[in-house]
Amino acid sequence: MPLTCLGIEGTAHSFGAGVVSDQGKVLSNVWDMLSPQEGGIHPREASRHHSDKGPDIIAKALTEAGIGPHDITLIAFSRGPGLGPCLRATATMARSLALKLEVPLVGVNHCVAHIEIGCLESGFKDPVTVYVSGGNTQVIAFAGNRFRTFGETLDIAIGNMLDVFGRTMGMRFPAGPAIEQEAMKGHRYYSLPYSVKGMDVSYSGMLTAARRLQTEHIPLPDLCFSIQETAFGMLAEVAERAIAHTKKGEVLLTGGVARNRRLGEILAGVAARHNARFHTVTPPLAGDQGAMIAWTGILQYTAGDRLSVAESYVLPKWRTDEQDITWRNLS
Ligand code: AMP
Ligand code: MG
User: Fold this and answer.
1) Model pLDDT, residue 217
2) Is the pLDDT of residue 306 over 60?
3) Which ligand is nearest to the CA of 286?
4) pLDDT confidence of 173, banded at 50, 70, 90?
5) Is 16 in the pocket of ligand 1 (CB under 6 A)?
6) 11 CB less than 6 Å from ligand 1?
7) Are residues 252 and 279 in the same domain?
8) CB burial class (10 A; 0-12, 13-18, 19+) of residue 84?
9) Would you call 162 helix, strand, or coil by DSSP?
10) Would residue 328 count as lying in a domain?
11) What is the CATH number of the domain that holds 63?
12) Is the shortest distance between the CB of 10 and ligand 1 below 6 Å?
Protein backbone atom coordinates (compact mmCIF):
# COMPACT_ATOMS: atom_id res chain seq x y z
CA MET A 1 0.00 0.00 0.00
CA PRO A 2 1.41 3.44 -0.88
CA LEU A 3 2.31 5.55 2.14
CA THR A 4 1.16 9.10 2.78
CA CYS A 5 2.80 10.37 5.93
CA LEU A 6 1.81 13.34 8.05
CA GLY A 7 4.90 14.61 9.85
CA ILE A 8 4.53 16.83 12.90
CA GLU A 9 7.42 18.93 14.17
CA GLY A 10 7.49 20.90 17.40
CA THR A 11 10.81 20.60 19.22
CA ALA A 12 11.34 24.31 19.92
CA HIS A 13 9.97 27.64 18.66
CA SER A 14 8.36 26.34 15.45
CA PHE A 15 5.37 24.12 14.91
CA GLY A 16 5.10 22.47 11.53
CA ALA A 17 3.06 19.88 9.68
CA GLY A 18 4.03 18.36 6.33
CA VAL A 19 2.69 15.63 4.09
CA VAL A 20 5.13 13.48 2.11
CA SER A 21 4.57 10.45 -0.12
CA ASP A 22 6.73 7.33 -0.10
CA GLN A 23 8.05 8.49 -3.48
CA GLY A 24 9.69 11.38 -1.62
CA LYS A 25 7.25 13.97 -2.95
CA VAL A 26 6.63 16.84 -0.51
CA LEU A 27 2.88 17.44 -0.91
CA SER A 28 2.70 20.21 1.68
CA ASN A 29 4.83 21.84 4.35
CA VAL A 30 3.19 24.39 6.64
CA TRP A 31 4.74 25.97 9.73
CA ASP A 32 4.53 28.87 12.12
CA MET A 33 7.27 30.21 14.32
CA LEU A 34 6.80 31.88 17.69
CA SER A 35 8.55 35.24 17.47
CA PRO A 36 8.22 37.22 20.71
CA GLN A 37 8.28 41.04 20.52
CA GLU A 38 11.22 41.01 22.89
CA GLY A 39 13.39 38.47 24.70
CA GLY A 40 14.01 34.86 23.80
CA ILE A 41 11.85 31.77 23.67
CA HIS A 42 10.23 30.51 26.86
CA PRO A 43 9.51 26.76 26.65
CA ARG A 44 6.06 27.15 28.19
CA GLU A 45 5.07 29.92 25.79
CA ALA A 46 6.36 27.89 22.86
CA SER A 47 4.36 24.83 23.92
CA ARG A 48 1.24 26.98 24.28
CA HIS A 49 1.88 28.30 20.78
CA HIS A 50 2.06 24.70 19.51
CA SER A 51 -1.18 23.59 21.20
CA ASP A 52 -3.01 26.74 20.09
CA LYS A 53 -1.83 26.81 16.48
CA GLY A 54 -1.14 23.09 15.90
CA PRO A 55 -4.63 21.91 14.87
CA ASP A 56 -5.02 24.68 12.26
CA ILE A 57 -1.53 24.08 10.88
CA ILE A 58 -2.24 20.37 10.53
CA ALA A 59 -5.58 21.09 8.82
CA LYS A 60 -3.84 23.51 6.43
CA ALA A 61 -1.17 20.92 5.60
CA LEU A 62 -3.88 18.43 4.62
CA THR A 63 -5.75 21.00 2.52
CA GLU A 64 -2.58 22.07 0.71
CA ALA A 65 -1.71 18.44 0.04
CA GLY A 66 -5.21 17.98 -1.38
CA ILE A 67 -6.03 15.11 0.97
CA GLY A 68 -8.46 14.39 3.80
CA PRO A 69 -7.57 12.92 7.21
CA HIS A 70 -8.45 9.41 6.05
CA ASP A 71 -5.87 9.52 3.25
CA ILE A 72 -3.11 9.59 5.87
CA THR A 73 -1.53 6.16 6.30
CA LEU A 74 1.23 7.05 8.77
CA ILE A 75 1.90 9.66 11.46
CA ALA A 76 5.46 10.70 12.34
CA PHE A 77 6.38 13.15 15.07
CA SER A 78 9.54 14.78 16.36
CA ARG A 79 10.29 12.75 19.49
CA GLY A 80 13.43 14.66 20.46
CA PRO A 81 15.80 16.28 21.13
CA GLY A 82 14.12 19.49 22.19
CA LEU A 83 12.30 21.41 24.88
CA GLY A 84 10.21 19.07 27.07
CA PRO A 85 6.95 21.07 27.09
CA CYS A 86 7.09 21.57 23.30
CA LEU A 87 7.83 17.91 22.61
CA ARG A 88 4.95 16.81 24.86
CA ALA A 89 2.42 19.14 23.21
CA THR A 90 3.49 17.85 19.79
CA ALA A 91 3.50 14.19 20.81
CA THR A 92 -0.01 14.53 22.27
CA MET A 93 -1.35 15.73 18.91
CA ALA A 94 0.45 12.93 17.06
CA ARG A 95 -0.85 10.24 19.42
CA SER A 96 -4.46 11.48 19.30
CA LEU A 97 -4.41 11.55 15.51
CA ALA A 98 -2.84 8.10 15.23
CA LEU A 99 -5.48 6.65 17.56
CA LYS A 100 -8.38 8.47 15.91
CA LEU A 101 -7.32 7.59 12.35
CA GLU A 102 -6.11 4.11 13.36
CA VAL A 103 -2.78 4.50 11.61
CA PRO A 104 0.73 3.60 12.83
CA LEU A 105 2.96 6.04 14.68
CA VAL A 106 6.73 6.55 14.41
CA GLY A 107 8.98 8.77 16.54
CA VAL A 108 11.65 10.66 14.63
CA ASN A 109 14.94 12.14 15.80
CA HIS A 110 14.84 15.81 14.82
CA CYS A 111 18.56 16.02 13.91
CA VAL A 112 18.41 12.87 11.80
CA ALA A 113 15.41 14.38 9.99
CA HIS A 114 17.44 17.48 9.07
CA ILE A 115 20.01 15.16 7.46
CA GLU A 116 17.49 12.92 5.67
CA ILE A 117 15.52 15.81 4.11
CA GLY A 118 18.84 17.18 2.85
CA CYS A 119 19.69 13.81 1.32
CA LEU A 120 16.24 13.60 -0.29
CA GLU A 121 16.63 17.03 -1.82
CA SER A 122 20.23 16.61 -3.00
CA GLY A 123 20.17 12.94 -3.91
CA PHE A 124 23.25 12.51 -1.69
CA LYS A 125 23.84 9.01 -0.39
CA ASP A 126 26.48 9.49 2.27
CA PRO A 127 27.49 13.08 3.05
CA VAL A 128 29.46 14.80 5.74
CA THR A 129 26.68 16.97 7.18
CA VAL A 130 27.09 20.36 8.76
CA TYR A 131 23.92 20.80 10.80
CA VAL A 132 23.50 24.31 12.15
CA SER A 133 20.42 25.70 13.83
CA GLY A 134 19.09 27.58 16.83
CA GLY A 135 19.64 24.62 19.13
CA ASN A 136 22.29 22.49 17.41
CA THR A 137 25.73 22.76 15.83
CA GLN A 138 27.13 19.44 14.67
CA VAL A 139 29.38 17.97 12.01
CA ILE A 140 28.02 14.50 11.34
CA ALA A 141 28.97 11.53 9.18
CA PHE A 142 27.51 8.05 8.87
CA ALA A 143 29.68 5.19 10.18
CA GLY A 144 28.86 1.81 11.73
CA ASN A 145 25.09 2.08 11.44
CA ARG A 146 24.82 5.47 13.14
CA PHE A 147 25.11 9.14 12.33
CA ARG A 148 28.31 9.87 14.28
CA THR A 149 28.95 13.31 15.65
CA PHE A 150 32.48 14.18 14.56
CA GLY A 151 32.38 17.61 16.12
CA GLU A 152 29.89 19.82 17.88
CA THR A 153 29.53 22.91 20.00
CA LEU A 154 30.74 22.61 23.56
CA ASP A 155 28.37 25.31 24.75
CA ILE A 156 25.79 27.30 22.79
CA ALA A 157 24.57 26.58 19.27
CA ILE A 158 25.62 28.90 16.46
CA GLY A 159 22.05 30.10 15.82
CA ASN A 160 21.55 30.76 19.51
CA MET A 161 24.79 32.78 19.58
CA LEU A 162 23.52 34.91 16.65
CA ASP A 163 20.09 35.34 18.24
CA VAL A 164 21.48 36.35 21.64
CA PHE A 165 23.93 38.79 20.07
CA GLY A 166 21.10 40.22 17.94
CA ARG A 167 18.94 40.67 21.00
CA THR A 168 21.72 42.76 22.58
CA MET A 169 21.57 44.93 19.46
CA GLY A 170 17.79 45.29 19.65
CA MET A 171 17.07 42.91 16.76
CA ARG A 172 14.00 40.71 16.91
CA PHE A 173 14.16 36.93 17.20
CA PRO A 174 15.42 35.21 15.07
CA ALA A 175 18.31 37.59 14.45
CA GLY A 176 20.35 35.47 11.99
CA PRO A 177 18.85 37.03 8.82
CA ALA A 178 19.34 40.62 10.08
CA ILE A 179 22.94 39.86 11.08
CA GLU A 180 23.55 38.44 7.60
CA GLN A 181 22.20 41.65 6.00
CA GLU A 182 24.39 43.84 8.22
CA ALA A 183 27.46 41.66 7.58
CA MET A 184 27.12 42.19 3.82
CA LYS A 185 27.78 45.91 4.42
CA GLY A 186 30.80 45.28 6.67
CA HIS A 187 34.39 44.89 5.51
CA ARG A 188 36.70 45.56 8.45
CA TYR A 189 37.54 42.51 10.56
CA TYR A 190 37.77 42.87 14.34
CA SER A 191 39.43 39.95 16.06
CA LEU A 192 37.17 37.70 18.13
CA PRO A 193 38.07 34.52 20.07
CA TYR A 194 38.43 31.67 17.56
CA SER A 195 37.82 28.55 19.60
CA VAL A 196 38.25 25.09 18.05
CA LYS A 197 39.08 22.40 20.61
CA GLY A 198 39.92 19.11 18.97
CA MET A 199 36.93 18.63 16.66
CA ASP A 200 34.60 20.76 18.76
CA VAL A 201 33.79 24.46 18.67
CA SER A 202 32.85 26.93 21.36
CA TYR A 203 30.79 30.07 20.78
CA SER A 204 30.21 31.51 24.23
CA GLY A 205 33.62 33.25 24.40
CA MET A 206 33.13 35.02 21.10
CA LEU A 207 29.62 36.05 22.09
CA THR A 208 30.94 37.72 25.24
CA ALA A 209 33.75 39.39 23.28
CA ALA A 210 31.37 40.59 20.57
CA ARG A 211 29.07 42.14 23.17
CA ARG A 212 32.07 43.89 24.70
CA LEU A 213 33.17 45.23 21.29
CA GLN A 214 29.66 46.53 20.75
CA THR A 215 30.09 48.89 23.72
CA GLU A 216 33.18 50.32 21.98
CA HIS A 217 31.00 51.83 19.22
CA ILE A 218 32.34 49.64 16.43
CA PRO A 219 30.04 49.93 13.39
CA LEU A 220 27.38 47.21 13.46
CA PRO A 221 28.10 45.96 9.91
CA ASP A 222 31.79 45.39 10.79
CA LEU A 223 30.84 43.65 14.01
CA CYS A 224 28.34 41.36 12.23
CA PHE A 225 30.92 40.68 9.51
CA SER A 226 33.53 39.74 12.14
CA ILE A 227 31.11 37.48 14.02
CA GLN A 228 30.15 35.62 10.84
CA GLU A 229 33.72 35.20 9.59
CA THR A 230 34.92 33.89 12.97
CA ALA A 231 31.97 31.59 13.68
CA PHE A 232 31.82 30.18 10.15
CA GLY A 233 35.60 29.79 9.96
CA MET A 234 35.53 27.57 13.04
CA LEU A 235 32.86 25.36 11.49
CA ALA A 236 34.76 25.19 8.20
CA GLU A 237 37.87 23.95 9.98
CA VAL A 238 36.03 21.13 11.72
CA ALA A 239 34.09 20.21 8.58
CA GLU A 240 37.30 20.13 6.55
CA ARG A 241 38.94 17.73 8.98
CA ALA A 242 35.86 15.49 8.98
CA ILE A 243 35.90 15.38 5.16
CA ALA A 244 39.64 14.66 5.06
CA HIS A 245 39.26 11.93 7.69
CA THR A 246 36.21 10.17 6.26
CA LYS A 247 37.07 10.80 2.59
CA LYS A 248 33.39 11.18 1.83
CA GLY A 249 32.59 12.77 -1.51
CA GLU A 250 29.52 14.79 -0.50
CA VAL A 251 29.03 17.73 1.88
CA LEU A 252 25.56 18.76 3.06
CA LEU A 253 24.68 22.00 4.83
CA THR A 254 21.36 21.80 6.71
CA GLY A 255 19.39 23.46 9.56
CA GLY A 256 18.06 27.01 9.96
CA VAL A 257 21.48 28.69 9.78
CA ALA A 258 22.02 26.98 6.40
CA ARG A 259 19.98 29.88 5.01
CA ASN A 260 23.08 32.05 5.43
CA ARG A 261 24.68 32.53 2.03
CA ARG A 262 28.12 33.40 3.36
CA LEU A 263 28.26 30.13 5.30
CA GLY A 264 27.27 28.24 2.15
CA GLU A 265 29.99 30.02 0.19
CA ILE A 266 32.69 29.13 2.73
CA LEU A 267 31.68 25.46 2.95
CA ALA A 268 31.35 25.19 -0.82
CA GLY A 269 35.00 26.25 -0.98
CA VAL A 270 35.99 23.58 1.54
CA ALA A 271 34.10 20.90 -0.38
CA ALA A 272 35.69 21.97 -3.66
CA ARG A 273 39.19 21.66 -2.18
CA HIS A 274 38.40 18.02 -1.43
CA ASN A 275 36.64 17.32 -4.72
CA ALA A 276 33.40 16.74 -2.85
CA ARG A 277 29.96 17.67 -4.12
CA PHE A 278 28.19 20.31 -2.06
CA HIS A 279 24.54 21.03 -1.36
CA THR A 280 22.79 23.60 0.82
CA VAL A 281 19.26 22.68 1.76
CA THR A 282 16.85 25.19 0.18
CA PRO A 283 15.26 27.73 2.57
CA PRO A 284 11.80 26.06 2.88
CA LEU A 285 13.44 22.81 4.01
CA ALA A 286 16.25 24.38 6.07
CA GLY A 287 14.46 25.31 9.29
CA ASP A 288 12.27 23.20 11.51
CA GLN A 289 9.32 21.86 9.51
CA GLY A 290 7.08 18.82 9.22
CA ALA A 291 8.16 17.53 5.80
CA MET A 292 11.53 16.38 7.18
CA ILE A 293 9.75 14.48 9.95
CA ALA A 294 7.31 12.91 7.49
CA TRP A 295 10.06 11.78 5.11
CA THR A 296 12.22 10.31 7.89
CA GLY A 297 9.08 8.64 9.29
CA ILE A 298 8.56 6.94 5.92
CA LEU A 299 12.18 5.72 5.87
CA GLN A 300 11.86 4.34 9.41
CA TYR A 301 8.47 2.74 8.87
CA THR A 302 9.62 1.09 5.64
CA ALA A 303 12.55 -0.37 7.58
CA GLY A 304 10.09 -1.87 10.10
CA ASP A 305 10.09 0.79 12.81
CA ARG A 306 6.88 1.12 14.86
CA LEU A 307 6.11 2.99 18.08
CA SER A 308 3.11 2.06 20.20
CA VAL A 309 1.21 4.96 21.75
CA ALA A 310 1.96 3.52 25.21
CA GLU A 311 5.70 3.69 24.49
CA SER A 312 5.69 7.03 22.75
CA TYR A 313 7.17 9.14 25.55
CA VAL A 314 9.37 11.99 24.36
CA LEU A 315 13.18 12.06 24.46
CA PRO A 316 14.32 15.65 25.19
CA LYS A 317 18.02 14.70 25.21
CA TRP A 318 18.01 12.18 22.33
CA ARG A 319 21.38 12.54 20.62
CA THR A 320 21.90 12.14 16.88
CA ASP A 321 24.29 9.22 17.46
CA GLU A 322 22.00 7.31 19.83
CA GLN A 323 19.76 5.86 17.16
CA ASP A 324 20.48 2.78 15.03
CA ILE A 325 19.88 3.85 11.47
CA THR A 326 18.18 0.73 10.17
CA TRP A 327 17.19 2.10 6.78
CA ARG A 328 20.69 2.77 5.42
CA ASN A 329 22.73 -0.05 4.00
CA LEU A 330 26.10 1.66 4.21
CA SER A 331 28.63 0.57 6.78
P1 AMP B 1 15.97 26.29 13.31
O2 AMP B 1 16.37 26.18 14.76
O3 AMP B 1 16.48 25.18 12.46
O4 AMP B 1 14.52 26.59 13.07
O5 AMP B 1 16.73 27.60 12.77
C6 AMP B 1 16.51 28.85 13.35
C7 AMP B 1 17.85 29.52 13.51
O8 AMP B 1 18.40 29.84 12.22
C9 AMP B 1 17.79 30.82 14.30
O10 AMP B 1 18.83 30.80 15.26
C11 AMP B 1 18.03 31.87 13.24
O12 AMP B 1 18.67 33.04 13.73
C13 AMP B 1 18.93 31.15 12.25
N14 AMP B 1 18.91 31.72 10.92
C15 AMP B 1 17.85 31.83 10.07
N16 AMP B 1 18.21 32.46 8.93
C17 AMP B 1 19.53 32.76 9.06
C18 AMP B 1 20.50 33.44 8.24
N19 AMP B 1 20.17 33.92 7.05
N20 AMP B 1 21.75 33.55 8.71
C21 AMP B 1 22.11 33.05 9.91
N22 AMP B 1 21.24 32.42 10.73
C23 AMP B 1 19.98 32.29 10.32
MG1 MG C 1 16.25 22.20 13.90
Assistant:
1) 87
2) yes
3) 1
4) confident
5) no
6) no
7) yes
8) middle
9) helix
10) no
11) 3.30.420.40
12) no
